[in-house]
């Protein structure tokens, strides 16, 4: 297995009519490269899935602050530097980590670069928030569904292979908006309010597993035009999940079991703090709903099994 590299790859020699010919380097384009998952996509500890060497071209609207190591491994392309120019490098394989509802804006870019296969990140929130009491969450679910439909329609119209990866709650490295937000709440207030028994099941998935699966999905032969729901390897109740965050922080679990009316008051108070602006009543309601998805298709098609809910100090932002 080769390591990821964005430096010019060595020529792979094959034989055709007795002559050696170089196999062209494979180039992978990335949209949303500065996102939470994108930050881990280029991690050196991931071994290369493809049997060919390949390089990365990451697209961004902003100049990135990169270390010398990162600069040597990833080529960055500014989206405002005329990425549609005819003389630009051909990119047949793509991983799209930007919100899937903005992906249609990049269809001309993908087509102009000769896209042949696309892996796009979505979310199981498409299903779990579809009937939320929070209108903002309903709109999110609709945007996810619409983005998926537009990708499928466009890709099939242009004979481009697609794979959609819908994830459950993603956590890891203290950069997520789920586990890290709960951790910050605990560190600030020392307790967590729960609606009822908070027995709804969760399957948190580590960001590194999501990044690795994107690689697998991109290069897996004979798997095309499918959507996968991918979840963590462990199912546990919302309360048990929060208890594990307490334990990782080294703080004794402390809960208040409250009715919905009091939750509305608490949420109004929390909105004073910028980092808790996204806390909603819908989140509280889902504490007692099972948000689980089978990994059977993922295991069958990719022989891939995400880790259980394993937390480190880094994962809780401590």
Summarize the structure.
The protein is of the alpha/beta class and 318 residues long. It contains eleven helices and 15 strands. It has one domain (12-316): NAD(P)-binding Rossmann-like Domain (Rossmann fold, 3-Layer(aba) Sandwich).
Care to describe what's here?
With 318 residues, the chain is α/β, with parallel strands linked by helices. It has one domain: NAD(P)-binding Rossmann-like Domain (Rossmann fold, 3-Layer(aba) Sandwich), CATH 3.40.50. It contains eleven helices and 15 strands. The strands form five sheets. Strands 5-4-3-6-7-8-13 form a seven-stranded parallel β-sheet, sandwiched between helices. Strands 1-2 form a two-stranded antiparallel ribbon. A hairpin with a 2-residue loop joins strand 1 and strand 2. Helix 6 crosses helix 8. The longest helix has 23 residues. It starts with 11 loop residues before the first strand and ends in a 16-residue tail after the last helix. The N terminus is likely disordered.
Mean pLDDT: 85
Shape: elongated
Uncertain segments are 1-23
Number of helices: 11
Would you identify the CATH H-level superfamily? NAD(P)-binding Rossmann-like Domain
The level-1 CATH class: Alpha Beta
Class from secondary-structure proportions:
alpha/beta
SSE succession: EEEHEHEEHEHHEEHEEEHEEHEHHH
Give the strand tally: 15
Q: What is the architecture at the second tier of CATH?
A: 3-Layer(aba) Sandwich
Q: What share of the residues lie within helices?
A: 25-40%
Cα gyration radius (Å): 21 Å
Strand order in the sheet with the most strands: 5-4-3-6-7-8-13
Strand content is 15-25%
